[in-house]
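Kindly inspect this today.
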Amino acid sequence: MGVRPVRILLISLLVLTFVSCANKPTVDPRIEALVAQKLMLDIRYFCRENDINPATQRCTTPVTTLPDELKDMVADTGIGGIILFANNLQDTEQMIRLNRDLQAASAAGGHSPLLISIDQEGGRVVRIPQNISTAFSGNMAIGATYAEHGTHFATLSGDVIAKELAVLGFNVNFAPSVDVNVNPENPVINVRSFGEDPHVVSQLGFAQMQAMQNNKVIAALKHFPGHGDTSTDSHSGLPLVEHDLAQIKAVDLAPFQYAIEHGDPGMIMTAHIQYPALDNSMFTATNGTKTVLPATMSRAILTDLLRDKMGFNGVIITDALDMAAIAHFYEPTEAVLQTFKAGTDIALMPLAIRTAQDIPKLKKMITDLAYSVQTGELSLAEVEQSVARINTLKQRYVPTEKEQLTLSQALVKARKTLASPAHLKAEQELANSAIVAIKNQQAWPIKPATKIIQLVMPDNSKCMAMTTALDDALKATPSTTDVAIRCASLVSDTTQHIIAQQRTAQLVIFSDITPQQSLVEMGGMDDITDWRLRPKKEALDAKLMSLMKEVKPHQISLLISMRTPYAVVDYADYLDGILASFAYNTQVTEQVDASGQATLYYDGPIYRALANILVGNQRATGALPVSIDKVND
């Protein structure tokens, strides 16, 4: 090829490039600003290049103070919200400063205040450090109090949780879960549900929602249209619910419909679940497979049903889009595009921002979504209506700059509010009222002749918490003195060691946590490696059964079911007593003695309540909120 033809070719390429760029439409900044308001990001971790773990190539440096790169990202993009996790939260002053810095970054960019959100359900899903806050025993424990106390503890817990969040600068709580737990095998909801009765779940969910919103914290009812009958965790797979329309209406939708008709829910969170009776449309995943649309991507479910038929006027937010039920099937921008088409107002966690190199990806996502609006793939009118709903919510619940306390005033208020004596009293009252006696053949109160109690707890932290609570309760009871309490860990102690210990005890107290901890309790998809390394539950169950079979006729044995009670029927024939607590929250505090020696102290309201029942200082007054097979008492 000669010089002249090469020159002609280069000129032609330059002309084509110029024409291509000239033809590419300019994206309207106003539309970009609208789209950005519809995104809520997590800033759980952020690393500079030399901070990334060389072995895993993962960023695991928690964001506890706001880096300049993230400040600029918030100011430049105008994103509408942030979700924080336990890794982001250390102590009172740090939490307040981080939330204030986030709001300042948004204001510096000329944007409306951020929605700053958190998963603070109570019970198994809490993000605020439990040693400085009030966690409560959770929804199924509240459900166990309904027969005697009605909605009292739903209102009380919602009030306390919201007050503590508000003083820290949070304005959205992804709670309550109003899923009706009708599946004993549910791996992710279970004790996060108030129970199996749609009427009870409706009443308790509404009461907790109202209490939160009365304290200027937006409640997000979840997971629409219902996550209560799944055997798959949507963090790790795509669940399918095969209810017919009548059952969906009577069970799954009932709590959401009740809240819409009787109040004004600020938010409803979608579920990454297939509901073919509501929408059997198919889609093609990134790997080429075809499957039924999940609710998060279904216009028939989110717009036609939730908006038009059920009458919901608030903000629809997705569950986290990094969960496998979505991320396995969609590329990030495509996932956001599809859920916006379905009628979602806010896309939660659409893209992980872990380094400065991820920020341009976010900006490109915003530009690409805005381009979809300009080309008509997304409706501009619907995007404008969506942002109007978000702004209405912000105006109603997010304090203006004039309403903000100074930092010193906010710190004083927060320290008075968090884990205040009144709040801790409420937390203990719920624990006391929630425990259910499923079986008691003279297993408790602990008999005066008892000299050795053997505890078999799930792990060492629960060993220490239960030992402390039981020791304190026994010392306060004159009829039970000089009792030795020994504890073995089901996870770390061998079967032979535990059997040798329990042989000399007059009372053996076992405990069980079924099912195991889910990803949402640990924090989310960033914890999936640790989640997969959990001890195998089948092996622990077999070990527990073998220990129960070793109890001799002259010994008394009982089981404390610390999560869902469905499995107790498998053990009932080997036991004299069964108690259900629905919770095992353990608080850890550091105590320093006179010599300056620091020790960790393990405690918790549920352990104190159990101990007082076992020594006879109080009765177990709760009622089962879910059905189990009959246990002979």
